[in-house]
Every structure is written in structure tokens, then in C-alpha cells.
Input
Amino acid sequence: MPDPIDELLRGPLVVVNVGLRGFAESLEEQEVDVVQVDWLPPAGGDREMIDLLDKLL
Amino acid sequence: MPSGYAIRKNQYYDSVFLMGVNSRLSKTAGVRQTAVLMGSEKNKALLEDLGIRAPAIDAAGANDLVIAVLADDEQAVRSALDGVDAALLAVEATSTPSELHTLQDGLRVKPGANLAVLTLPGEYVYAEARKALDAGLHLFIFSSNVPLEQERELKQLARPRGLLVMGPDCGTSILGGVGIGFANAVRRGTIGVIGPSGTGLQEFTCQIHHAGGGISHAIGTGSHDLSNDIGGATTLMALEALERDPSTEVIAIVAKPAGDRTLGVLASRLQACTKPVVACLLGMAGRGLGPGLEWMPTIDAAAQAAIGLCATPAARSAPALTIGDPGLSLQGDARRSPRQRFLRGLFAGGTLCYQSQQILRQAGLTVFSNAPLSADGRLQDPAHSVEHTLIDMGDDEHTRGRLHPMIDGTLRAQRILAESVDPDVAILLLDFILGANAAKDPVGDIVGAIVEGRHRRPKEAGDLTVVASICGTEGDPQNLPQQSKALTDAGVHVFWSNARATDYCRERLRSE
Output
């Protein structure tokens, strides 16, 4: 079975960009297949609720 | 000072968006300072430092937008706060929002994804990174402030799955010619490079490019990877991958010093490498660690050595010492006062600040810094330079609640003005970093301060020599020739590399 890192280096990259949009745009400009995720803090950023959700899901 | 605030519940924006809003509001007449932040605990502490505290701010959460204003009078505070909605709309108009809000949303659209790029607040990184690894994705984590134990756990999880974790605090990678994060448009070739520092990788890849060589892959590992806590987990995996990679002929490592235990492991591994290796661990110059392994003293030296090891010679020789300044001399172009004896360096690139310190220290100079080579060089107050001082403007102190100086030159411009009027200063040393995701016009953001600084400098204080390096290539979006021309037009001595610019400063200090 091919090593996953060897495959990554061979390309092509397919990217999920979570956060700053500029990083996705610079990848798009290089003709990389990329999807932009406008990330939001889970559970409104409530730490206890996030920990609880992470345990449940 | 009169102040006020506004809160928008459940409106989350990323830091670049917030900077756009902040920049608009700060232009309101009479406004001294604005802060446009999400209501995280860290940001609320920052607001408190500014003297802004209210029960409503205490109650705000990480999903709530908080806008705070300090101004000359109440009227200016009201004007700025009245302009918040218009500023939000204006910045929103420059981009189309995504309907996707979680990693899982993204994977539904791109089920074949092989890499997740994360730029979230550090406290949220671990959970998202775990999900990415569980989905079989490699990671590029730009975020900083991720606890070391979380980084170690992520890298331990990734290794048996054969997944690469670049980061956290990873600024740059170039995989198969594709730049991720802060990367320059460099030629493809056969030199592979690994490094924990974004600016170190940018400087190395640009030097290879200028000298006619090319890059197969540049693998960022994250700033803590070579610490004893992390043990070089990503560095070692990257090294194995580049050894196997048929497009890589020579492997280089460019880094600041490693933890002692990690260094031992790394040195043994490099000695056993099946391909030629060049190692530049700044701060380690002159300390050989076994047969066949030579530590390069500078990034430039590492780039030249790597090119020398390639079977096919580079298409062209190393570039001239300077950009467009053939008449550059060490004497005679500045009118000095007897007090002018010191160098002040203000850096956007942390590794470049580090390299400059090393070059000057090796020349026997005592240099102070907020990011010193060793504890005895620590600057007591980062806001006030003494003697020879080099400041890393990207350290935590200067980036709390602000964007990195590679994106926002405001603080560096202010510091240039302060250093310019100091009668003890003879030379100002700067760096400008071009490439994807860096400021659109890094020189334009700063050059006004250089000119104004000279103008404000008292005549009897003598002339100020300004020296700069540009890290960039002709393919970068900022237009390298225009950037260098703007500097030379302002009387700045411009060099292709930080090491050369620092060498020039060292020689000037010696000769004066």
C-alpha cells in the first residue's frame, strides 16, 4: 500500500480550508482543488458545552 | 480618555476580517484607538488592559463581536460606534461568505480531500485536528497557542496512520510546487527542505530560486517540532518522505536550535540519510556533530551548499550582493555625529531577527533582543531599545490582539519613527517579506515612516543609514521590482537576503 505522505507529495492536493479565507484564495490561484469553510466556534464558544458535545458525538 | 463599546451577539468573524473593520473605524476623526475582537477570554483581558470593562463585555462569548473605541471626546466615540454597521457591510462586500461551517461540512463537499488547513484560534485546534486525522487527512496548522501536550498527542496519533502534521504554528509549506500559507513563487527543482520556521523556509527557498536552483518540496513542521517535548516528530517523518521522494535530490534542514535530546536524534538520523544533507541550525554554527555533517552558519550558506550538491548545476550564478545599488560603499555616504554608534533592527521575520543576532554576535558585538540568542541578551523592556537592539515584531508581546507584522505594518512603522529620532542610532535594519498571504504592499506600508523618521531627526543627530532585505521573487504578487524601487528611491540600501544585509551593517559598524 502506498505511503500516504508519498501520495500527498505526489499530489494533486485536495484541500479543506478551515478559517482564514485568504489561505483558500491563494490555493485557488494556484489551481488547487479547495473548499472554504467559514468556521464558527462550536456551542457558541462555551468551553464546557464543547467538551460535552465532543464526548457525545 | 473617553471610551465606549458595542456588542453584536452571535456574529463570528475571522481575524483578517476584523482587521479590515478595525482599519476602517480607526480612521474616524478624533479616534485614538479601536479594538474589534471576538469576545474570547483572552480578548476580554486585552480590552481590560485598554481600560475597557463592562458587565456586558464580561458576558460576551467567543461568538460575539465586541467593538471598543478610545477617542479624544464623546462625540468621536459615538461617531465611530455609529459607523460599525457600515464598516461591517463594507468589509463583507469584499467577500462571498461560505455556507460551510465545520470540517465535516467541508468533507461532504470534498470527500476526496487529502489535506486540512486550519487557521482557527489555538484553543479550538485540537478538536478539529483530531477530526481531520480520523478522516485520514494530513494537516497544515497555522494556528499558534496550541498546548504542547495537544501537539504531541496529535503527532503521536498521526504517525502510525502515516499522516503528516505540519504545525501548529506552521507558516509555510510548498508541496509539489503548491505554496500553502506564507509562501513565495519559487522555481520547482530537486532541493527538498524541512523547517520549523515559516520565514526561515521562505528565505531559504528564495535564495535557492535567486541562485538558479529549485525546490521539490518545502515542509513546514511547526515552531515547536524540534523541542524536547515534541522530539522532532514531524521533522523525522518529513525526512523519511524526502528520502523516498524521487523528485528530491538534496535535503536541507533550516531551523533555530533544537532541544538537546532532539538534536542528538536528529543528528544521528541526518548522518544515516541516504541523500546528501545540508543542515542550518542557527545558533549552532561551527559545532560539527559527527562525520559528513556540516552545520551551515547562515541560510544563504545553506542554500549555496544545497545547490552545490545538486548533480545538475544551477542555471545561473548567485545574484549580485545588492539590488540596484552598484555604488554602495562602506563609507562616505552619511554624515555622522559622534554619538551615532548603534544598530537597531526591526523584523517581521522571527528567524531573520535570530540570524542577524547570530551574525553580529559572531563579529564580537553585544546585541540585545526581545527574542535573544541566549538569556544574557534579553532586552529588559521590549518597547525601549538599548545599544545594538534587534526586535522581533512578530513575538507574542507585539501580536497580542493584532495581526502579524507580515500582514500589518502599523506597529513597525511606529517603532521606526521612535528609533529614527534616537541620536545614538546610526543604522536601521529592516526586512520585507513578500509572497502569498503577506501584506499586499509591505514596503508601501512602511516607507512613509522611513521618510518621516529622517525628516523628524534633528540635524545635529547626523544621518541615519537604512538597510533592508527583501525576501521574495519576481513571481510574487507584490511586484518585487516595484517594492525594491520604492526602497531605493527612499535612499534605503536593499539586499537580496537578510544575511547579506546584516553583513553590510556589520561592516559599516566596523568601518565607522
Observations:
- The mean pLDDT of chain B is 91.
